[in-house]
Write a structure and sequence with these properties.
Number of domains: 2
Oligomer: single chain
Number of helices: 9
CATH superfamily of the largest domain: HUPs
Radius of gyration: 21 Å
Length: 332
C-alpha cells in the first residue's frame, strides 16, 4: 500500500457552486495532509465548475482534479461513482474524504464497494496515526453515548464521510497557487440508470440548515406545532432558517428535515437561537460548532445554558414575541 499517497477531498457541487462542506473538509484536510507530508487534492465534478476548482486551491488544495460534462450537471449516482472510481484507480490516493450530505452518503459507499475498501460514516473527528500514517476516524455510536475510533489499516484508500458543520472552513487565500488537471471522463448514456425527473426547489432550499448562518430552533417547550409559527416569523426577520430538536420532530410538530443533532443535521451557523430546548447531549453535539448561541428556557438548570453565550431564563411565549416586536420596531 506504499504506492498510495495524498489526501483527497471530494468537493460536492450543485448548479455550478460548491457545497460549503467541501471547503470545511479542505481546511481539516490541509492539516492532515501536512502531517502526512503529502499533497492535498480536491476532486471537483460538475458542469462549468472551474470557478469551484479555483476556490478549492484558495481553500488549501495543492492540486484539483476537474471533471466536467453534461452528465455531472446535477448529481447522478452512476456518473459520479464512475468518475470517482476511475480517478482513484488512476492516481491511487491514500485517503478520500466526502461530505456526509445526501449525495455524499450515496456516493461514498458505492465507491467503497467497487474498490473493496472500508468506509467510516458520519465522523466527528479526524487525525493521522503518527506511527503508521493511518487515518484515525472518530464517530459517535450507541445513540451518542460512546465514541468509536475506527482505522482501516489493510485496504486503500481509507475513506470517511464527515457531516457538514463539524469542521470550520478556513479563510480562503486568493494568492495561493495550485495545479488544476482537467480529466476527460465520460460515462456511456446506457450506463446511467437514474435520471432526475423534477426538483422541488421550495423543499430543497427552504431547509438548508448546513449552509444557514442564522438558525432559530425550537424544542419541546413550544408545546405544539402551531407555535413554530412565531419561530418562522423570527427566523424570517433575521434572515435565518428554522431548526428543531429531536423531541419536536418526534412529536410530529415539524418535519425531520429541520432536525439538528446526531440523528439530524450538524450545523455551524454564526448565530444559533435555542428556544424551549433543554439541551440533550445528542442535540448539543449537532450545534456545537455554532459561533454564538442564545438560549431561551424557563429552567435555569437546563443543560443548554452550559453551552450558551447568552442565557435568557424566562417564558419563551413572552420572550420571543417581545423579541419579534423589538426587531420590527428597530426596522420601522
Amino acid at each position: 500500500m506504499s504506492e498510495n499517497k495524498n489526501l483527497w477531498v471530494v468537493v460536492e457541487t450543485e448548479e455550478g457552486a460548491a457545497k460549503t462542506v467541501g471547503f470545511e473538509l479542505l481546511s481539516v484536510g490541509r492539516t492532515l495532509a501536512d502531517k502526512l507530508g503529502q499533497a492535498l487534492v480536491a476532486v471537483v465534478l460538475g458542469k462549468n465548475v472551474r470557478t469551484v476548482a479555483n476556490q478549492a486551491v484558495a481553500y488549501g488544495a495543492d492540486q484539483v482534479l476537474l471533471v466536467e460534462g453534461d452528465e455531472y450537471d446535477t448529481y447522478n449516482t452512476d456518473a459520479a461513482t464512475y468518475a470517482v472510481v476511475a480517478l482513484i484507480r488512476k492516481y491511487r490516493p491514500a485517503i478520500v474524504l466526502y461530505g456526509a450530505t445526501a449525495n455524499g452518503r450515496d456516493l461514498a459507499p458505492r465507491v467503497a464497494c467497487q474498490l473493496e475498501t472500508g468506509l467510516t460514516a458520519d465522523c466527528t473527528e479526524l487525525d493521522i496515526e503518527a506511527e503508521t500514517g493511518n487515518l484515525v476516524s472518530t464517530r459517535p455510536t450507541f445513540g451518542g453515548n460512546l465514541m468509536a475510533t475506527i482505522l482501516c489499516p489493510d485496504h486503500r484508500p481509507q475513506m470517511s464521510t464527515v457531516r457538514p458543520g463539524v469542521f470550520k472552513k478556513a479563510a480562503p487565500d486568493p494568492s495561493r497557487t495550485g495545479e488544476i488537471v482537467a480529466e476527460d471522463i465520460h460515462i456511456a448514456p446506457e450506463q446511467i440508470r437514474v435520471r432526475l425527473v423534477d426538483r422541488i426547489r421550495e423543499v430543497a432550499e427552504a431547509v438548508n440548515l448546513e449552509e444557514a448562518e442564522i438558525i432559530v430552533s425550537g424544542g419541546r417547550g413550544l408545546k405544539s406545532g402551531e407555535n413554530f409559527a412565531m419561530l418562522r416569523e423570527l427566523a424570517d426577520l433575521l434572515g435565518g432558517t428554522v431548526g428543531a430538536s429531536r423531541a419536536a420532530v418526534d412529536a410530529g410538530w415539524i418535519p425531520h428535515a429541520h432536525q439538528v443533532g446526531q440523528t439530524g443535521k450538524n450545523v455551524a451557523p454564526k448565530l444559533y437561537l435555542a428556544v424551549g430546548i433543554s439541551g440533550a447531549i445528542q442535540h448539543l453535539a449537532g450545534m456545537s460548532g455554532s459561533d454564538t448561541v442564545v438560549a431561551i428556557n424557563r429552567d435555569p438548570n437546563a443543560p443548554i445554558f452550559g453551552v450558551a453565550d447568552y442565557a435568557v431564563v424566562g417564558d419563551l411565549f413572552e420572550v420571543v414575541p417581545a423579541l419579534i416586536e423589538e426587531i420590527k420596531k428597530q426596522r420601522a
